[in-house]
Amino acid sequence: MHRAYQPVLPSGNKYLQQKWDKAYYDEHIKKVKSAKPMVNTTTPQTYGHLHLKMKKLKLQEERLSIIERDNNLLLEKMSYIMRTSGRIDNKNEYQSKSLNKEKRQRELLQITKENQQILERISQCWPQYSTEKWQEDWEKNEKYMDSIARYPRGWYEEMHKKNKMRSSARKANGAEVKTSDEETNQEEKPDDLSREDQNKKSEEMNKEIDEEQRHAETELKKQHEVMQD
Question: CB atoms < 10 A from the CB of 219, how many?
Answer without folding.
Answer: 12
